[in-house]
């Protein structure tokens, strides 16, 4: 069972990103999300995390799949992935300092730029698929330390999707 959730909140060609002040990924730009609490569904978790980390109240999120990470032999963790699309006219003050870090709207092209070393490394693999493909995927990463050494994406089966 996956222990975490992550959401990318989109407005036009920008995504609300969080530069985290705490582990994991301290100092890196990432989506919003967090740990699933006991007796909480992933869906309920991401709605709570969006509200807690951004102040934005949403009732609908799109389930986009999952990201898992391994060391080649042992499962190390994973998260459910979600997207939210806000109207381009949505007024949100940013950048803004929060308890979690700094929230700011970043252009998709900036997030995905190969030379951008400030974004969590695996995002550049799975975010383009989340943005451009209506299918739901299991994004699987193999790490050696903090380095990605293998990646593959497989569509999730219908029976898995019925839970979300």
From TrEMBL:
<dbReference type="Pfam" id="PF00293">
    <property type="entry name" value="NUDIX"/>
</dbReference>
<dbReference type="InterPro" id="IPR020084">
    <property type="entry name" value="NUDIX_hydrolase_CS"/>
</dbReference>
<dbReference type="InterPro" id="IPR015797">
    <property type="entry name" value="NUDIX_hydrolase-like_dom_sf"/>
</dbReference>
<comment type="similarity">
    <text>Belongs to the Nudix hydrolase family.</text>
</comment>
<keyword id="KW-0378">Hydrolase</keyword>
<dbReference type="InterPro" id="IPR000086">
    <property type="entry name" value="NUDIX_hydrolase_dom"/>
</dbReference>
<keyword id="KW-0479">Metal-binding</keyword>
<keyword id="KW-0460">Magnesium</keyword>
<protein>
    <submittedName>
        <fullName>NUDIX domain-containing protein</fullName>
    </submittedName>
</protein>
<feature type="domain" description="Nudix hydrolase">
    <location>
        <begin position="1"/>
        <end position="131"/>
    </location>
</feature>
């Amino acid at each position: 069972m996956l222990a975490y959730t992550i959401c990318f909140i989109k407005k036009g060609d920008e995504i609300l990103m969080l530069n985290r002040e705490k582990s994991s990924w301290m100092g890196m730009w990432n989506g919003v999300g967090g740990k699933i609490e006991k007796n909480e569904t992933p869906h309920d978790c991401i709605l709570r995390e969006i509200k807690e980390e951004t102040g934005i109240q949403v009732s609908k999120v799109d389930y986009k799949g999952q990201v898992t990470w391994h060391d080649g032999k042992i499962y190390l963790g994973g998260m459910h992935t979600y997207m939210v699309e806000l109207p381009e006219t949505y007024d949100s003050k940013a950048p803004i300092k929060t308890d979690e870090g700094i929230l700011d709207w970043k252009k998709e092209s900036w997030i995905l730029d190969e030379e951008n070393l400030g974004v969590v490394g695996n995002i550049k693999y799975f975010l383009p698929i989340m943005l451009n493909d209506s299918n739901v995927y299991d994004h699987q990463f193999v790490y050696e330390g903090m380095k990605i050494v293998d990646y593959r994406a497989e569509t999730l089966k219908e029976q898995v999707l019925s839970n979300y």
